[in-house]
Amino acid sequence: MPVTMEYDVTVIGAGIHGAGVAQAATAAGYKTLVLEQYLQAGSATSSRSSKLIHGGLRYLETAQFGLVWECLTERRRLLRNAPDLVQLVPFLIPVYKHTHRGPITIALGLMLYTILGGGGFKRIPKSQWGELDGVMSEGLKAVFQYYDAQTDDQVLTQAVLQSAQQLGAEVKLGCEFHSAQAGVNGCEVEFQHDGVSQKINTGVLINAAGPWVNRALEKIDPLPRRLDIDLVQGSHILIPGTLEHGVYYLEAPQDHRAVLVMPWDDAILIGTTETRYQGDPADVIPIESEIDYLLEVYNYYFSAAVTESQIISSFAGLRVLKREHSRIFHRSRETILHIDKKNCPRVLSIYGGKLSSYRATGAKVIRQIAHLLPERTRKADTRTLPLPT
């Protein structure tokens, strides 16, 4: 075994939340190590999102006001700290006679979104409806426009991790986490990197393994108490075409869910779905019913019909949601920071989380573990720290 090295914070996973925790930890002055199973950061869920930095307009329906406010606050910071990576784009909401949410409901929601930091909205005049990328005009009652932001999720994740490295974090890619022995004073962590088994001691172990979160906990002794979760698959398809006027926020005719049709990579990206998933997170792919669902939404609203044979590519990612009896669409998207203080007081697990609020999540993690760690000299403030481009 190589000589043991000491770290204040060790993070399992270099998705957006692992990268965010690493940045927050190194900014606070802690000696930090990141262990990532893939050869590139953000290769799993953090490269398979809807590519948006947004407040989550639809979360207002389930009264998740704090989450929306937090995400909009972080959107504002990212627009300032990473202008090359995050840009505002117009969102259009067409409202029809048959849609579940009428113009008054949408306007009230957008007013509340504005109050929480969304930045305002307007109605598109009827005289301009014919210019809206071939969207269906029959039964159209109103079109609203507001702004949210778009990003390349994997590139953003890698930029956050690079920021952590610039502050002093050590990152091991292509690394397999084997086990951890947790105690009252820290954890002994064993992993394999470049074919060599290594052991290190760390003050705190952060489990940011995303959909592998409970699988990682199974490798820790004593076994921490785990939360009951559902893995929820969200799929997207990429089709040929262009959108000149922004992102279309649509109500799926099948079940009234929100589906987005957006410009991406000189084509059109459509998503997302919500399907329970069982199996290895590494094997997740879109299923036929999801592809049919997304095509049906697009063909319902746009005049240029698309068939499955025209799909350029598709991908699926996994959300981690706390298991509840309610429908998936209505479940909370709040991030859960979980510590089994009785068995593993030095292990913190991140359940769920939003791409938009990764920085806030990292800051919360550091606040929660700071009392377990020695005092260090702060290096930076992530609220104002520019991201490398």
CATH superfamily of the largest domain: FAD/NAD(P)-binding domain
Largest sheet: 10 strands, mixed
Query: In oligomeric terms, what are we looking at?
Result: single chain
Task: State the helical fraction.
Answer: 10-25%
| Helix/strand/pairing category | alpha/beta
Enumerate the spans where pLDDT stays under 50 for 5 or more consecutive residues.
none
How many distinct helices? 7
CATH class of the largest domain: Alpha Beta
Average pLDDT works out at 95
The CATH topology annotation of the largest domain reads as: FAD/NAD(P)-binding domain
Radius of gyration: 22 Å
Instruction: For the record, give the distance between the C-alpha atoms at the N and C termini, rounded to a whole number.
Output: 38 Å
Number of domains: 3
Shape: elongated
Strand fraction: 25-35%
CATH architecture field of the largest domain: 3-Layer(bba) Sandwich
Structure report:
The chain is an alpha/beta fold and 389 residues long. The protein is built from seven helices and 19 strands. The protein folds into three domains: 5-45 and 154-227 and 333-372, FAD/NAD(P)-binding domain; 64-149, no CATH class; 229-322, D-Amino Acid Oxidase, subunit A, domain 2 (D-Amino Acid Oxidase, Chain A, domain 2, 2-Layer Sandwich). The chain has helices spanning 16-27, 65-81, 103-118, 153-166, 213-217, 288-301, 358-369, and strands at residues 5-12, 32-35, 52-53, 86-96, 121-123, 140-151, 170-172, 175-183, 186-193, 196-207, 220-221, 229-239, 247-251, 258-264, 267-271, 275-277, 313-322, 336-340, 344-351. The strands form two sheets. Strands 3, 4, 5, 6, 12, 13, 14, 15, 16 and 17 form a ten-stranded mixed β-sheet that branches. Strand 1 (5-12), helix 1 (16-27) and strand 2 (32-35) form a beta-alpha-beta unit. The model has no long low-confidence stretch (mean pLDDT 95).
